[in-house]
Design a protein that fits this description.
The chain is an alpha+beta fold. It contains 9 helices and 17 strands.
């Protein structure tokens, strides 16, 4: 059955922090659904920082039951049985965050990613996804907040349990006055409160979005730079990216990243930039960061390419994720007990004088500028499949090589590009 809630019970925040649950292990994610009325270009955005205990993930292209799609899977999932975020050829995109408070007391949600794979292959839009939920009520093994957008401009969250769901529409001014909705790994519709998690991150991301929307619209660079890479813990008055550290022989400063948005367990970031209209679903863009975002760059992908760049997919693990893991090992070098949750902030901020981000962000900024220009060209003249594929491969390879060159002393030797 579908439940309804009064306006006072609806969510009035705008970002959505999503959480991934595989079997019984709770691994929080940070996510957002943003309607076009809150963005600079009028197109919806869908965001997920993926946190999980799985060691590796990569991108795959799959020809589904009705629609082809790009999705993120665990690298060890050879059959791609579960997809954890993705977008299909109709411009329909989906993410999730696991929410244990939607489970029975001793329940297990083993089907969160299975449902998303099915939705990407079958659903053309948000309406069809809701029909899928209606048809599977009582039959699915899920406990998740599902975020979805489509080429019509719809942008919603569905807090979904085994037998019911509650819909939150980011285009509804009563539900989302600012045009966006927030979630972490707890559900506002849960019958039993305080069983979920991610409350520290929810407060932090709420404050980040509120500050950003005070005087302007939201856009892709805001999500990638400010939101996905945030290392602050407001409860501890810890704001590492504003710290100025001496480069002398003082003892290194560490930060614990277990409750930050960019976490020790973050292994990818996806931002889906909605299509400019229903007649151009091929221009809906998937931006992917493989690896912890402070150690990798965002790259653009399109389903129309019918392919995945070699550094983001392939057999085994993805080279870009392998590269990011080497940089993470450099920053989280003390693996004794709980010290593995502590990042060496001194190394991060002082590397080559100006720190990691001084090397990573210029690479990403150039890609965003070039892609903006390319999308304008493609909107005027519809590109062929080969044009998408060539641009994706060339851009990804150039970024991968630039990262290898920038961090050559850490990597020691070149990582094969696939």
């Amino acid at each position: 059955m579908k439940k309804t809630y009064s306006n006072s019970q609806r969510v009035t925040f705008s970002i959505c922090l999503f959480f991934l649950l595989t079997v019984s292990a709770l691994k929080p994610c940070t996510v957002a659904v943003i309607s076009g009325k809150a963005t600079a270009d009028g197109r919806p955005l869908l965001w997920k920082n993926r946190d999980t205990g799985q060691p590796n993930n990569k991108v795959v292209f799959i020809k589904g039951e009705k629609y082809s799609f790009l999705g993120v899977i665990n690298s060890e999932d050879n059959e791609a049985t579960s997809v954890w975020q993705g977008i299909n050829s109709r411009g329909f995109a989906i993410i999730n965050s696991a929410s244990n408070d939607l489970l029975p007391e001793k329940g297990i949600a083993s089907g969160n990613g299975v449902l998303m794979r099915r939705a990407l292959g079958m659903c053309a839009d948000v309406g069809e996804f809701e029909e899928l939920l209606q048809s599977t009520n009582g039959k699915r093994r899920v406990a998740a907040n599902y975020g979805v957008i489509d080429a019509y401009g719809n942008a919603c969250f569905f807090e979904t349990s085994r037998s019911s769901y509650v819909k939150f529409d980011a285009n509804d001014p009563e539900t989302a006055p600012s045009g966006y909705i927030l979630r972490t790994n707890f559900a506002f519709s849960a019958q039993e409160k305080n069983r979920g998690g991610g409350y520290i991150r929810f407060e932090r991301i709420s404050h980040i979005f509120e500050k950003e929307t005070a005087g302007k619209k939201l856009d892709l660079p805001f999500i990638l730079k400010k939101a996905s890479r945030d290392l602050a813990n407001e409860k501890l008055h810890s704001f590492p990216l504003t710290v100025k550290l001496n480069t002398d022989a003082a003892p290194p400063l560490y930060i614990r990243t277990n409750d930050t948005i960019n976490r020790i367990s973050t292994i990818s970031v996806s931002v889906f930039h909605g299509a400019p209209g229903i007649e151009k679903p091929h221009l809906a863009t998937m931006w992917i960061i493989l690896g912890q975002p402070i150690c990798s760059v965002a790259l653009p992908l399109w389903v129309k390419s019918e392919s995945v760049p070699s550094v983001l997919g392939g057999q085994g693990t993805a080279p870009m994720h392998d590269l990011s893991k080497k940089l993470i090992s450099y920053l989280y070098h003390d693996q004794r007990g709980n010290m593995k949750q502590y990042m060496d902030l001194s190394l991060f901020l002082n590397y080559k004088d100006n720190g990691f981000l001084s090397l990573i962000l210029p690479i990403e900024d150039q890609i965003i500028r070039e892609t903006d220009q390319k999308l304008k060209e493609w909107e005027a003249n519809k590109p062929r499949q080969k044009e998408f594929k060539t641009y994706m491969e060339e851009t990804s390879s150039r970024a991968f090589n630039a990262l290898q060159d920038s961090f050559a002393d850490i990597l020691k030797e070149k990582i094969p590009s696939g």
